[in-house]
Structure formats: structure tokens, C-alpha cells
Write a structure and sequence with these properties.
The chain folds into 2 domains: about 170 residues, 3-Layer(aba) Sandwich (Rossmann fold); about 200 residues, Dehydroquinate synthase-like - alpha domain (Dehydroquinate synthase-like, alpha domain, Up-down Bundle). The chain contains 16 helices and 9 strands. A 6-stranded parallel beta sheet has the order 1-9-6-4-2-3, with helices on both faces. A 3-stranded mixed beta sheet has the order 5-8-7.
Length: about 375
């Protein structure tokens, strides 16, 4: 076994209705003036109503920044920082999907004024500390509540990441009742996104380790066994809770064993066509699995036995890998998601441009179990077309 470092959030509170204990938690952490980072949909659907009552019952003074958008640009981050500085908060609460939680992470660092956003892009560039941070996810997908990564849109089609253990939250609340209202398509796409996190962590080239492997396996067991119920019976709290826990475990896994080619090829789809991240991953996943099979077939065989526990599997790892790719294509179709780039109104003439942009994601591609060339990336897009 190679030496490895594993980092994780220390406290996770799990249970239906536990978001109503948010004020108790924040108060116990010493917060007095808390800024909540969220998006307009959370406000519209009233998901914050009960948590806010509990915060106020604990005598916390609150401010809510609710202008977060999907794939947040730098301007949103800086607007949130300005709002937090004007309010004078002493603690930050991320409440929503991955975008809200990513902004909350950066806000908790940048409000101290010790570094600019440009200073902290990259790996381990944060020099100081941050304010106390609680994360409350309302989707079962990104795992952002459990990761040390924040992804920000830096241009029309480009993104950049901040990677630092400083971004790990102090505490997480997983309340499945917050996910009950998610539409089926969002539940499906975010669920497959989380499954991709687990798969790529399990096959990560450089930082794969026994702890992340354990988390990835359990994440896939939970999600494969519950995603269809969560999508088709959206009020099933038990299935929703299994998905939420699975997504967090997958987040912990890939926070320590980073993702790879699926994400590298998905990013240009989101950047150019504004396809939701989970759906972008789903569109390229089966084809990356086939590409990786010669190097990762044994790993895929182990994961397939978890995803399809009652199926007698072939002995040839390449055949098992094909079975896994076929499973994800069929799953996406069954859950009502698009399965080809053509269905997303992407032109075949755009594929070379997408391949060139994917090759810029070397931070991710170096983790892939098989080297990816420009021609390989183009071939994968052509298969997904």
C-alpha cells in the first residue's frame, strides 16, 4: 500500500427533518451573525423556512444571499463576498445545490480579505483560514458538501477550480426531506453524477486508496439500489435519504481520489451548451467506460458486481465493462434523460473543438486509468454523438 492522506468533514448529522436543527448547530459553533448562501429556487419553495425559524430561535442574526446561479461566475462570488462583508458575518451556511455550496466555501475564505479569488485558483493556494462553515445540500449529486473543491466559471466557456483542505466544512446536515421536491430529471442527472464520482474515485490513477475505495463501493451500493425509486417515487424518503448519503460518500471518495476523463469531457459540454453537469457526465460516461476498459476492467468488474448484485457476470473484464456501459445507457434512458449529443442539439462539426477543450483539463486527465490523447477524446465524443 502506498502512503496516502485522507481528509474528511468531522461531523455529519443525518436524518429526516434535521435541517430544523441548523440553529442549534450554528449556535453551538459560536456563530452570532450567519450568512446563508443559496439560490432563488430555495427561497421560492420555502425550503429555508423551518431552518430559519430555528436559527432565529437561537438568537442568530441572519442575512441571506440568494443570487447564486448554476455554474456560478466570478461575479457572483464577489457579490456574495461584498454582501457578507457589509453584513459583518461570523459564520457561513451553504444551503442548496453544488453551486451554492461552492460559493459558500469561497466566501468563507475570501471574506477575511487576505487573498483575492485569483490568488487561490489551483491546488493548495489558500494561505490563511476561513470563517466557520456548515453545508446543507438539497440535491443528491455533487457531493460538494464533503469536498475540498470549488468550481467557478471564469469565462464564456471556461472554468477553474480552487482545491484546498481549508474548504472542507466544519459540519454537514443531510436532510432528505429537502430533496423531496426535486423534479425527476434533476434527481436522475444528479444521481448519475454522484455515481460517476464513485466510479472515477475507485479508478483514480494516482490517489486511489483503501478508504476512498470503501466509500466508493458503499456509495454505489446505495445509489444503484435507490436511484430508480427516488426518480419514479419522488416522495419516498428512504430512497431519497439513501441517495443523499450515497452522494456524500462519493464526495468524500473523490475528494481524496480525484475524478478523471468523464469530468474532463463533460466540462466542455456544460461550458459551451449550458448542459447541466450531471447530464453532461451521463452523456459521456458509457463511452469513457469502454475506452478505459483495457486498463480498468478489473475495477469495473468489482463495481459491476455491486451495481448488479444478482447478475451472473462474465469472467472477461472487457465483457463486464461493456455490461457496465450498457447498464448506464439503459439507466439514463429509463430515467428519461437524453443519451446522445445529437439529442442536445450539438453539431458534429463541433466535436473537434470539444476535444481540444477537454484536453485542457489535464488536472483531471492525469487521474484517468488510461492516457487520453486528442484523437481519443474526439473518438469518445463521436461515440457519444
Amino acid at each position: 500500500m502506498n502512503d496516502f492522506l485522507f481528509s474528511a468533514v468531522s461531523d455529519v448529522l443525518i436524518g429526516a427533518g434535521t435541517s430544523q436543527q441548523l440553529g442549534d448547530m450554528a449556535s453551538a459553533m459560536g456563530m452570532h451573525r450567519a450568512l446563508i448562501v443559496t439560490d432563488p429556487g430555495i427561497i421560492k419553495f420555502g425550503l429555508l423556512d423551518s431552518p430559519v425559524k430555528n436559527l432565529e430561535a437561537n438568537n442568530l442574526v441572519l442575512s441571506i444571499y440568494s443570487d447564486v446561479v448554476a455554474d456560478p461566475p466570478e461575479s457572483v462570488v464577489m457579490d456574495a463576498v461584498a454582501a457578507a462583508q457589509e453584513f459583518g458575518c461570523d459564520g457561513v451556511i451553504g444551503f442548496g445545490g453544488g453551486s451554492s455550496m461552492d460559493v459558500a466555501k469561497l466566501l468563507a475564505v475570501l471574506i477575511k480579505g487576505e487573498q483575492s479569488l485569483a490568488d487561490i485558483y489551483g491546488v493548495d493556494q489558500i494561505a490563511g483560514g476561513r470563517l466557520p462553515l456548515i453545508q446543507v445540500p438539497t440535491t443528491a449529486g455533487t457531493g460538494s458538501e464533503a469536498t475540498m473543491v470549488s468550481i467557478i466559471t471564469t469565462g464564456e466557456t471556461t472554468k477553474a477550480g480552487v482545491v484546498s483542505r481549508t474548504l472542507l466544512a466544519d459540519k454537514i446536515i443531510l436532510d432528505a426531506t429537502l430533496t423531496i421536491g426535486l423534479p425527476p430529471a434533476v434527481t436522475a442527472a444528479t444521481g448519475i453524477d454522484a455515481m460517476v464520482h464513485a466510479i472515477e474515485a475507485f479508478t483514480s490513477q494516482h490517489k486511489k486508496n483503501p478508504l476512498s475505495d470503501m466509500l466508493a463501493r458503499e456509495a454505489l451500493r446505495l445509489m444503484a439500489g435507490n436511484i430508480e425509486v427516488a426518480v419514479k417515487q419522488g416522495t419516498n424518503v428512504a430512497a431519497r435519504e439513501a441517495m443523499l448519503l450515497g452522494a456524500m460518500l462519493a464526495g468524500q471518495a473523490f475528494a481524496n481520489a480525484p475524478v478523471a476523463a468523464v469530468h474532463a469531457l463533460a466540462y466542455p459540454l456544460g461550458g459551451n451548451y449550458h448542459i447541466p453537469h450531471g447530464l453532461s457526465n451521463s452523456l459521456v460516461l458509457p463511452h469513457v467506460l469502454r475506452f478505459n476498459a483495457p486498463e480498468a476492467g478489473q475495477y469495473y468488474a468489482e463495481l459491476t458486481s455491486i451495481i448488479l448484485p444478482h447478475k451472473i457476470l462474465p469472467t472477461d473484464p472487457l465483457e463486464v465493462s461493456e455490461l457496465l456501459a450498457t447498464y448506464f445507457l439503459a439507466l439514463a434512458e429509463d430515467l428519461g434523460l437524453q443519451t446522445t449529443l445529437q439529442q442536445m442539439n450539438i453539431e458534429q462539426a463541433d466535436l473537434p473543438m470539444l476535444a481540444e477543450q477537454a484536453m485542457l483539463q489535464q488536472r483531471l486527465l492525469i487521474n484517468n486509468p488510461r492516457d487520453v490523447s486528442l484523437d481519443d477524446a474526439l473518438a469518445i465524443y463521436q461515440q457519444a454523438f
